[in-house]
Design a protein that fits this description.
By secondary structure, the chain is an alpha/beta fold. The chain contains 7 helices and 10 strands. The chain has a 6-stranded mixed sheet with strand order 6-7-8-3-9-10, with helices on both faces. A 4-stranded antiparallel sheet has the order 2-1-4-5, covered by helices on one side. Helix 3 (about 95-105) packs parallel to helix 5, helix 4 (about 110-120) runs antiparallel to helix 5 and helix 5 packs parallel to helix 6 (about 170-180). The structure holds adenosine-5'-triphosphate (ATP).
Length: about 250
């Protein structure tokens, strides 16, 4: 069964149409990759799924059988959608440790698990700093991942978790994503899912069940296929070749 169904979703921001009739699905337990050139609409799609205010939206977003198109971001978060942003805002006066504690209380996340994840990500030294203030690019990614884990999401939206991350950290980020999605535990009864926006696809080598990627060009989903095959094709022929793809959506 599909956990997420996006049906003919169009998004306008300040009169400009950024996404046009986008349709795609994410199955239970599946990690779907989103590929596409800069400015093609990948982040806008994730923001629209999360319910960012200020977007003029038409079409439908169905999450676990519920039409969430008109819901606020906090209602969607309560239903189990979590977002790791590409460029998160810094929050003055908000200590990371306090925010993690608050989120774990709201979402019922196990504190020991979060402690272990922060050790794995090697970001314990950041816990007493203000959120994202002066953090390096890689530190921001790792902290966002910890915050995502604290939300204990059924559907995780990850915007470029592999950009700005050093080579040694990449497998660790992949491992934590697997933990969040539950892919490291084959006995997990509740199947969790994720959408990962990535340019180079490096992170896909470290996560399980990432068998499908969609390509977004100029605000439209053009084709889908095996992530490794698509990335190889894009490297060889460029995105425009996707228009000739037989796996047209
Ligand atoms: N709030 C906004 N106001 C005006 N234009 C916007 C806004 N949000 C997004 N856009 C525009 O929409 C287009 C798509 O942006 P988006 O961030 O979704 O692209 P992307 O595919 O994630 O790009 P990248 O790979 O560079 O991160 C861009 O041209 C961007 O400038």
């Amino acid at each position: 069964m599909a956990m997420l169904k996006v049906e003919e979703l169009s998004v306008k921001v300040r009169e400009r149409e950024i996404l046009r009739e986008v349709s795609f699905e994410v199955g239970e337990g599946e990690i779907v990759a989103l590929l596409g050139p800069n400015g093609s609409g990948k982040s806008t799609l994730l923001h629209a799924i999360m319910g960012r205010p200020g977007y003029e939206v038409s079409g439908r977003i169905i999450f676990n059988g519920i039409d969430i198109t008109g819901m606020s971001a906090s209602e969607r978060a309560k239903l189990g959608i979590g977002f790791m942003m590409q460029i998160p805002p810094a929050l003055k006066g908000v200590r990371l440790r306090d925010l993690i504690k608050r989120l774990s209380k709201i979402y019922g996340t196990d504190q020991d698990t979060l402690r272990r994840i922060s050790e794995e990500l090697r970001i314990e030294r950041l816990l007493d700093r203000e959120l994202h203030r002066g953090f390096s690019g890689g530190e921001m990614k790792k902290v966002e991942l910890l915050l995502l884990a604290a939300q204990n999401p059924k559907l995780a939206l990850l915007d470029e978790p592999d950009s700005g991350v050093d080579l040694e950290s990449l497998p660790i980020i992949g491992k934590v994503i697997n933990e969040i999605v539950g892919a490291s535990d084959s006995r997990a009864r509740e199947k969790r899912s994720a959408i990962i926006v990535t340019h180079m696809g490096k992170i896909l080598k470290h996560v399980r069940n990432a068998n499908r990627a969609y390509i977004i060009l100029n605000g439209e989903v053009k084709c889908f296929g095996n992530p490794a095959d698509l990335i190889e094709d894009i490297e060889k022929y460029g995105f425009s070749e996707c228009l000739r793809c037989v796996r047209v959506v």
